[in-house]
Each structure stands twice: as structure tokens, then as C-alpha cells.
Amino acid sequence: MAHVSARSAYAHLVDRLNQFPQGAPPSDLLYRILGLLFSEREAELVARLPIRPFTAARAAAAWKLPLAEAQGILETLSSRAILLDLQQDGAQVYVLPLRWPASSSSR
């Protein structure tokens, strides 16, 4: 039954990705790609993250984990470019790199 729970973790992540404008239609290929990028646990955790930039404290609350543990996970994910970490108004925030700011220029 482990494959069912793994599929479920990745399905939650696909649902989260589909909240972005560009979306990510579910497919076997998408699940294989997500399996390469994320462990099952990481997929489940990232699926719970806000779409807008968030702090480690907000991630810890969403994950119901201690702040130090959440910070460690966020640092691991950002070191692999799964998350972007940046300074915003003097605070470190994280964001999924799929959220692109609106551009006023056309390409």
C-alpha cells in the first residue's frame, strides 16, 4: 500500500501546482518527474505551503512542526532550488519558483 500513499502525496502536490496560472495537468510523466524532485514526505509538505511568499514560521504552522525543523526542511528545499529564499522587508521568505510576478513587458 506504500504506492497508494506515495501517489496521494504527489497528487496533493499536483493539486497545489494547479493553483498556479500555468498549471500542471496530472499525468504519469508528471508523477515520475515529481518523484525525482521530491521525496514522498517533501511532496506532502510542499503541497501544504502557501502560494504567496511565506516565512519559516508560517511553514512551521502549516506543517505543525517546530520552527527549527521547518527551517531545516526549507533550507534543504531551497538548496535544491525547489523553493526560492529571499529577503523581503528585512525578513527571510520563501516561495515556490512557479509563481512568476506579472510582467508589464511582452515577449
Plain-language structure description:
- The longest helix has 16 residues, at 2-17.
- Strands 1-2 form a two-stranded antiparallel ribbon.
- Helix 1 packs across helix 2 (28-37), helix 1 packs parallel to helix 3 and helix 4 crosses helix 5.
- It is mainly alpha-helical and 107 residues long.
- Helices cover 50% and strands 9% of the residues.
- The N and C termini lie far apart (47 Å).
Brief write-up:
The protein is mainly alpha-helical and 107 residues long.
Q: Indicate the radius of gyration in whole angstroms.
A: 14 Å
Distance between the terminal alpha carbons, to the nearest Å?
47 Å
Q: Report the helical percentage.
A: 40-55%
Q: Classify the oligomer.
A: single chain
Task: Describe the strand arrangement of the main beta sheet, using strand numbers.
Answer: 1-2
Largest beta sheet, briefly?
A: 2 strands, antiparallel
Order of helices and strands: HHHHHEE
How many alpha or pi helices?
5
Dominant shape: globular
Q: Unreliable segments (pLDDT under 50, ≥5 consecutive)? A: 1-5, 99-107
Can you tag this structure with a few keywords?
mainly alpha, 5 helices, disordered C terminus, globular, 107 residues, two-stranded antiparallel sheet
